């Protein structure tokens, strides 16, 4: 039976998930399992393997799909436990490296401003845009990532060249930069040889032989296998060669290439002849018969390494570098027996195929279904080809595909020799020789049992400094009967010798160099910097790639990448387009400057109808985007009933509901008239509202006063006690506070009050006790000076003293006055309002003025009062998210460690994590309100809708939880996330306004 578990928004890199898949498939009871991210390509793989269910088909690209075929549902629990342990071990290993992790390239550059190289190992379908971003920031790029179109490669390499940086790749598996191993690479001693290689295992073979010969390598610059194609035109190869020519510590330059386009090859040779340094060049597939001037042409990778070492040591160049074989064998195979090469390295496979085809006159090479050679029973297979790695780890990491091929080839009665490579180094399997040994033994035993002769020949590509043991790999292979040679070239020669074919190179002659030398271009400052310093790397993708960098003295920041916009290709394209429009950043800067410059003062408390014209009549304000009474949830309808009773438009609940249901009352969103209201947000004409004026430009905002705790109108209660309290606030509290404020010249400076309260542990949504007490401290003397009844003064002061959340409503008006001032800049993507009406969550952004962008609202998660649970909760409601819009509340969770457990955040470290996460979707920090527990950073400033959509991180809002039935009131408190769809709609609308059409 098939079982599917979806881990929402739980991105992991593909290699980690492939290894996890392999581990789970070894569990007893698991028939078949695959763990993949929910991309369309991965769903096709799951479908092809019979593991795709409707749940898996509905997964998003950032969702992890665990698809299991098992006979018992209990097996699924074991799979989940094993998955959790595997991924946790990865996290622990990552943490142990001490490398700082971030979630954006901007954060990476903030952490390491001097970074000069971005190392990519992300899915190819997303890579081109991400690489372009790195190039735009002046970073060199090392792209381990493959599956990038040739058109994108050409475009990006031209861009890199224009910016003076290099794009190494795509599909660049190996590199050494200033002695630092990068990606799948071996540890070689430093020296005076610089390499430029349009192949990965070609570099590995040459560098490891150089190391074993006593030489050393300072740089090995991978370029990707297509760089010398006619389309690309050797852009990176040229820049790298020029850079090494100007690099003083490089005495010898080596160029390694898979078969190049002839025109490009000739241009590169012309460039090499213009250098002042000696060069070794190998163009795989060519069989050169001479050297020319200081340019030495090699036939094999071993010859390349040996010439380079002689040049580096100042030794005389030999005319022939063919070495004796380590194994003495006699030709013993019958004429019909063939050689089969099973390679993890593409360049090693190409070299083997070239040598075998030349020796046996088998014709041209190809690359169909991974077969580089497939003629007359002779086969050489690149098991790293896409046909074998789709949905599976590379064979350097995982032996499975090669084990299966060994079994298949050994079962072929015509197979006489199987040739293997065993590639060591960072990124490779910790013991590939040991992993292959059982299948090698089984194949030999099977052959002997059937009276057949079967030989295994191998070479180990590695050094004594590699994380795996070079000698142990050799010993393991020899112990199971493998004939091991020093190089791939010698292994192939040995295999052919078993067939009775002696293969060797003819002596090369020496010719004079061409007389004319062309002037060389200058290396850019960025290339000079890269080659003359230890790399400072932003590692984007596989965390394990930081291991070798840090171990050998490089510096790295880990960017925990995941697809932007949840993998939505259309949205990614749009975001990338918008990110390149610098005018948007300028516009957003204008918006946030107004937020920073806000000067809110509480100047009065007045009847709502005296300042809000629409309330002069039977009209109510409500929270959130527009909504009709019939669509309101229970708490908001209850608040409407209470307001009708308070205003005297009806005498009881039944008649109040009838009036509301028959259209006897009109409704307007608070936000449409400069007001905000908590929870239901219901505001009527005779309710007193606090008046907050932003002295920056006199933008004014209004909010009703906080009623205290218990059964209150804002949570939908409408009993006599609730109505009587509202009347007291109308008749006494409001007028008293109004008179007191008149004694405060210019009003109460709220910026100062907020700045003090945030240092005392308030975040201004769930926790306002410090601000409420400071407010009381400011207001009490003013109230006490009034010439009114002493009992009335006492009742007002006592109410303020007892109402811990009184300042919440003040803060809402503050936030509204600041954000309404900022939204006068009608450009950009800054979020200027967030609000909920119990059905919909709505946002506004600066560039779209008054337009709301809505999506279904979520229900809060949190803690409940005794006797209540999530089943009783109403979906989120209220205008109080205006506090998060200005950067406090849930955005400033770290400021209020005292409240984090109450709202379900867990503790201080979770609060810190939340605030750090919220800062990723904001443009900056507000210096006016600094948070001591956040190293005195200012509160988050300017939620950027682009960043929300790109990261998938939505604002977290601290909120009260109302019972879904009217009249019950508050039943808990918690947090809720804004729905992503609101921000996506806003960005699409703004793009359309700018004239961008991505449909």
From TrEMBL:
InterPro entries: AllG-like, CoA-bd, NAD(P)-bd_dom_sf, OXTCase_su_AllG_h-dom, SUCC_ACL_C, Succinyl-CoA_synth-like. One of its GO terms (biological process) is tricarboxylic acid cycle. Pfam families: AllG, CoA_binding, Ligase_CoA. GO terms for molecular function: succinate-CoA ligase (ADP-forming) activity; succinate-CoA ligase (GDP-forming) activity. Residues 190-285 form the CoA-binding domain. It comes from the Bacteria. GO terms for cellular component: cytosol; succinate-CoA ligase complex (ADP-forming). Residues 342-496 form the ATP-citrate synthase/succinyl-CoA ligase C-terminal domain. This is Succinyl-CoA synthetase, alpha subunit. It comes from Propionivibrio dicarboxylicus. The lineage of its organism: Bacteria, Pseudomonadati, Pseudomonadota, Betaproteobacteria, Rhodocyclales.
């Amino acid at each position: 039976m098939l079982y599917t578990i979806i881990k929402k928004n739980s991105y992991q890199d593909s290699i980690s998930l492939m290894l996890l898949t392999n581990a789970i498939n070894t569990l007893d009871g698991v028939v078949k399992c695959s763990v993949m991210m929910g991309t369309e390509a991965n769903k096709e793989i799951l479908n092809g393997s019979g593991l795709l269910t409707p749940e898996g088909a509905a997964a998003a690209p950032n969702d992890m799909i665990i698809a299991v075929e098992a006979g018992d549902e209990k097996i699924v629990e074991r799979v989940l436990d094993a998955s959790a342990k595997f991924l946790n071990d990865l996290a622990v290993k990552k943490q142990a490296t001490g490398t700082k992790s971030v979630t954006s390239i901007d954060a990476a550059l903030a952490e390491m401003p001097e970074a000069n190289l971005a190392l990519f190992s992300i899915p190819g379908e997303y890579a081109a845009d991400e690489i372009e971003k790195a190039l735009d920031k002046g970073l060199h790029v090392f792209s381990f990532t493959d599956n990038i179109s040739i058109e994108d490669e050409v475009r990006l390499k031209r861009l890199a060249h224009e910016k003076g940086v290099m794009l190494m790749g795509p599909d660049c598996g190996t590199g050494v930069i200033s002695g630092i191993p990068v990606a799948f690479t071996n540890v070689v001693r430093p020296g005076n040889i610089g390499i430029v290689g349009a192949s990965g295992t070609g570099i590995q073979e040459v560098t490891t032989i150089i190391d074993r010969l006593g030489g050393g390598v300072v740089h090995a610059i991978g370029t990707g296998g297509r760089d010398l194609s006619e389309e690309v035109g050797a852009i990176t190869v040229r820049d790298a060669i020029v850079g090494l020519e100007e690099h003083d510590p490089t005495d010898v330059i080596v160029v390694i290439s898979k078969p190049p386009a002839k025109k490009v090859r000739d241009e590169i040779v012309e460039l090499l002849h213009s250098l002042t340094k000696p060069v070794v060049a190998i163009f795989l597939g060519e069989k050169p018969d001479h050297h020319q001037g200081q340019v030495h042409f090699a036939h094999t990778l071993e010859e390349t390494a040996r010439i380079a070492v002689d040049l580096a040591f100042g030794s005389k160049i030999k005319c022939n570098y063919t070495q004796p074989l380590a194994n003495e064998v006699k030709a013993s195979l019958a004429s019909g027996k063939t050689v089969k090469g099973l390679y993890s390295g593409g360049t090693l496979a190409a070299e083997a195929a070239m040598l075998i085809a030349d020796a046996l006159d088998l014709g041209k090479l190809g690359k169909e279904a991974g077969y580089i050679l497939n003629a007359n029973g002779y086969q050489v297979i690149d098991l790293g080809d896409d046909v074998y790695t789709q949905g599976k780890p590379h064979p350097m990491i995982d032996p499975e595909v090669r084990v299966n091929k060994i079994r298949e080839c050994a079962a072929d009665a015509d197979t006489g020799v199987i040739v293997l490579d065993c590639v060591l180094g960072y990124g490779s399997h910790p013991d590939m020789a040991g992993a292959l040994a059982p299948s090698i033994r089984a194949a030999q035993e099977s052959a002997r049992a059937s009276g057949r002769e079967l030989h295994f020949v191998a070479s180990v590509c590695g050094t004594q400094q590699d994380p795996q043991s070079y000698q142990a790999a050799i010993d393991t292979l020899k112990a199971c009967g493998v004939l091991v040679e020093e190089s791939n070239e010698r292994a192939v020669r040995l295999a052919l010798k078993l067939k009775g074919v002696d293969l060797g190179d003819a002596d090369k002659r020496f010719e004079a160099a061409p007389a004319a030398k062309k002037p060389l271009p200058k290396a850019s400052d960025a290339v000079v910097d890269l080659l003359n310093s230890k790399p400072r790397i932003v590692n984007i993708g596989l965390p394990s790639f930081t291991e070798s960098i840090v171990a050998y003295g490089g510096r790295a920041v880990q960017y925990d990448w995941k697809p932007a916009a949840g993998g939505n290709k259309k949205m990614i394209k749009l975001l990338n387009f918008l990110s390149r429009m610098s005018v948007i950043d300028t516009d957003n800067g204008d918006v946030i400057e107004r937020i920073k410059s806000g000067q809110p003062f509480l100047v009065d408390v007045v009847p709502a109808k005296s300042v809000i014209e629409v309330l002069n009549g039977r009209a109510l304000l409500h929270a959130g985007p527009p909504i009709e009474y019939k669509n309101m949830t229970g708490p908001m309808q209850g608040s409407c009933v209470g307001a009708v009773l308070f205003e005297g438009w009806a005498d009881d609940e039944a008649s109040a509901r009838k009036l509301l249901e028959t259209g006897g009352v009109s409704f307007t969103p608070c936000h449409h008239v400069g007001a905000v209201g908590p929870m239901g947000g219901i505001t009527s004409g005779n309710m007193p509202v606090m008046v907050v004026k932003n002295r920056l430009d006199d933008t004014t905002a209004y909010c009703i006063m906080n009623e205290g705790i218990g059964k209150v109108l804002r949570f939908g209660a409408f009993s006599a006690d609730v109505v009587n309290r509202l009347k007291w606030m109308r008749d006494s509290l409001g007028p008293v506070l109004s008179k007191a404020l008149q004694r405060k010249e210019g009003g109460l400076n709220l910026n100062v009050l907020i700045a003090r309260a945030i240092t005392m542990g308030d975040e201004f949504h769930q926790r306002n006790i410090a601000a409420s007490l400071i407010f009381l401290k400011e207001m009490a003397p003013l109230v006490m000076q009034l010439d009114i009844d002493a009992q009335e003064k006492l009742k007002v002061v006592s109410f303020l003293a007892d109402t811990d959340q009184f300042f919440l409503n003040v803060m809402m008006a503050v936030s509204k006055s600041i954000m309404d001032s900022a939204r006068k800049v009608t450009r950009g993507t800054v979020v200027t309002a967030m609000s909920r009406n119990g059905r919909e969550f709505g946002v506004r952004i600066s560039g779209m003025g008054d337009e709301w962008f809505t999506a279904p609202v979520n229900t809060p998660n949190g803690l409940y009062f005794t006797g209540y649970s999530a089943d009783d909760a109403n979906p989120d409601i209220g205008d109080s998210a205006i506090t998060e819009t200005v950067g406090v509340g849930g955005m400033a969770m770290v400021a209020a460690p005292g409240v984090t457990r109450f709202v379900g955040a867990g503790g201080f470290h979770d609060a810190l994590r939340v605030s750090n996460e919220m800062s990723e979707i904001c443009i900056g920090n507000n210096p006016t309100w600094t948070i001591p527990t956040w190293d005195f950073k200012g509160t988050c400033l300017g939620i950027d809708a682009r960043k929300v959509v790109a990261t998938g991180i939505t604002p977290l809002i601290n909120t009260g939880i109302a019972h879904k039935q009217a009249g019950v009131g508050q039943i808990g408190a918690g947090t809720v996330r804004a729905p992503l769809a609101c921000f996506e709609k806003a960005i699409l609308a703004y793009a359309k306004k700018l004239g961008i059409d991505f449909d």
